[in-house]
Structures are given as structure tokens and as C-alpha cells.
């Protein structure tokens, strides 16, 4: 046998092509899944962040809107109050004349037209002349009710009325100073109104053989009281 000839037994073996291991593909798939999870987490975080920012911005807007509305309401209320005060001051310029009994010295003065007057005793049969003045309306008469102005012409001489107030001066409940009303010397008492819990001003002066007593029941009404006093006229 020729050495160059091969026996069937000695035919060369064929080698099968190499097959890629499936492990690499599995790793790629796992990597892709991890990336997807990370992206989903990032998306969720972003969504939550934007949702939080949206809610925060809405709350800030609502708070700002409420604050702005509150300031607007306050401004409107303040404007209305200022206008009401201005109207009230303007109304005070429009006045009427109060006139007391002729035989009691015909006491007169100017008072705001918007005020009401109640004459409790006109002294037509003697005694004291008593009247009350108050903005808008007169409340039921009592010692504890606050009135802008009480006007009394007492059928009593000036010295006797002065002596009645002396004990309240002695107690320190009132202070007194001298002033003038229509050129006549008057006593001006300030402090606790006798027999009440009110604090105000009382001015008394002589009218013929009688005594005029003008009183305001609140320190808040003193400016109006002073304005009225400046217009007082009477026949001494």
C-alpha cells in the first residue's frame, strides 16, 4: 500500500464551528432591564418633584392671592371708614340753632343738623329746663346712658351749684379750671361724672338767677362739645 494513500479509517475529522455561549446575551438583557428600572425611577423622581413644585406653587399662589385680597379688603374698609368720617365731619358743618326758654336767658348754640334733640322738661311751669342732644337718635334717658350733650338750666343760683361739685373735687374724682362762655366766667369740671361711671366734661355758668349746666358724657365727644361751647349765646 502506498504510504501516501489513506485508509478510510484515517480520514481527517471535520471540526464543527464554535457556537457563542448564551451567557453574554443574558448579561445584555439583564443590563437593559437595570437601565429601564433606573430610567423608571428617575422618571418617577422627576414626576414627584414636578408634582411637589406644582403643589407648592399653587399653595404659594393661593396664599399670595389671599394676602392680596385681604389687603384689598383692608384698603376698601379703610377707605370707607375715612369716607364715613369725612362725611360725618362735613355733616357737622351743616348746623341748626338750639334755643332755650326766653325767661331762662334764651340760651342758644349751634349743633350738627344730623343730631337729634329731646327736651325732657321745658320749664314752662318753672323748675329746671332739661334737654338731651345726640348724633342720629336719642337713647332712652338714664344717668348711665352716654349723650353727646346734656343741657340743663337749673333753677338754682350759681354759688349753690358750685358748692355741690366741691365734694367731688375733694374726693379727687373731678378737677376744675376757669374758662369763659360768651364772655361770662364759667367753671369747667373734668373727670368722673357725679353719680355715674362715666368720664366727661361739665361746664357751668350763671344765667341771671339760674345756672346753666352743659355736659358731655365721653372724652371722645369733647371736640364736638368744645365746638358747641364756642357758639353759645345767652341773655345775662
Structure summarized in a few sentences:
This protein is of the alpha+beta class and 236 residues long.
Characterization of the model:
The strands form two sheets. The protein has a seven-stranded antiparallel beta sheet, sandwiched between helices. It has a two-stranded antiparallel sheet with strand order 1-2. The chain has helices at residues 23-93, 158-170, 222-229, and strands at 95-99, 108-112, 115-121, 129-135, 149-154, 174-181, 184-192, 199-207, 210-216. β7 and β8 (199-207) form a beta hairpin. It has two domains: 22-92; 94-229, 3-Layer(aba) Sandwich (Protein Transport Mog1p, Chain A), CATH 3.40.1000. It is α+β, with helices and mostly antiparallel strands. The N and C termini lie far apart (177 Å). It is built from three helices and nine strands; from the N terminus they run αβββββαββββα.
Amino acid at each position: 500500500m502506498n504510504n501516501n494513500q489513506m485508509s478510510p479509517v484515517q480520514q481527517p475529522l471535520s471540526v464543527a464551528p464554535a457556537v457563542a455561549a448564551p451567557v453574554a446575551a443574558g448579561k445584555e438583557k439583564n443590563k437593559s432591564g437595570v437601565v429601564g428600572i433606573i430610567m423608571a425611577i428617575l422618571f418617577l423622581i422627576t414626576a414627584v418633584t414636578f408634582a411637589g413644585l406644582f403643589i407648592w406653587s399653587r399653595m404659594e399662589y393661593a396664599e399670595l392671592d389671599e394676602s392680596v385680597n385681604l389687603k384689598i379688603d383692608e384698603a376698601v374698609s379703610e377707605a370707607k371708614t375715612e369716607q364715613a368720617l369725612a362725611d360725618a365731619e362735613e355733616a357737622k358743618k351743616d348746623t341748626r340753632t338750639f334755643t332755650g326758654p326766653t325767661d331762662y336767658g334764651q340760651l342758644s348754640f349751634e349743633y350738627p343738623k344730623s343730631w337729634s334733640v329731646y327736651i325732657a322738661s321745658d320749664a314752662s311751669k318753672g323748675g329746671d329746663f332739661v334737654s338731651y342732644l345726640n348724633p342720629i337718635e336719642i337713647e332712652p334717658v338714664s344717668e348711665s346712658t352716654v349723650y353727646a350733650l346734656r343741657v340743663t338750666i337749673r333753677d338754682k343760683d350759681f354759688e349753690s351749684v358750685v358748692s355741690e361739685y366741691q365734694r367731688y373735687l375733694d374726693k379727687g374724682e373731678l378737677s376744675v379750671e376757669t374758662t369763659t362762655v360768651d364772655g361770662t366766667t364759667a367753671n369747667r369740671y373734668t373727670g368722673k361724672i357725679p353719680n355715674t361711671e362715666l368720664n366727661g366734661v361739665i361746664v357751668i355758668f350763671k344765667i341771671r338767677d339760674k345756672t346753666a349746666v352743659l355736659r358731655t358724657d365721653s372724652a371722645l365727644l369733647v371736640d364736638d362739645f368744645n365746638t358747641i361751647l364756642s357758639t353759645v349765646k345767652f341773655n345775662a
